[in-house]
Write a structure and sequence with these properties.
With 115 residues, the chain is an alpha/beta fold. Helices cover 47% and strands 16% of the residues. This is DUF5615 domain-containing protein.
């Protein structure tokens, strides 16, 4: 079973569309009504839904690292700096991560893109 993703509101819609065309299970925070939530609540929401948050927001990265240090669990985080990743590369890398890793592999971890 592939990872289920939760897309931060900063993510280019072309990435979400491309992944959906390839069969990746995605919910965006816009669809979930959480686009205006603060970053802590958003990571918690993704975790509550059993979804790995994909973000390009440094604040989420800092929160995940703090939660790791505090022993607070989360479903996982995939992080990429927007300048380091084209839409096509994001789609390919996210599809690979979603199809290779399972929930146990990424739980309480941060995966960095590009691969």
């Amino acid at each position: 079973m592939s990872l289920r993703l939760y897309m931060d509101h900063h993510i280019d819609v072309a990435i979400t569309r491309g992944l959906r065309r390839r069969g990746t299970d995605i919910v965006t925070c816009l669809e979930d009504g959480t686009a205006d939530w603060d970053d802590v609540r958003l990571l918690g929401r993704a975790t509550d839904l059993g979804r790995v948050l994909f973000t390009q927001d440094d604040d989420h990265l800092a929160i995940a690292h703090r939660w790791q240090g505090d022993g607070r669990g989360f479903a996982g985080l995939i992080f990429a700096r927007s300048l380091d990743l084209t839409v096509g590369k994001a789609i390919r890398d996210l599809e690979l991560v979603a199809n290779v890793l399972d929930e146990d592999d990424i739980r309480n971890r941060v995966e960095y893109l590009p691969l």
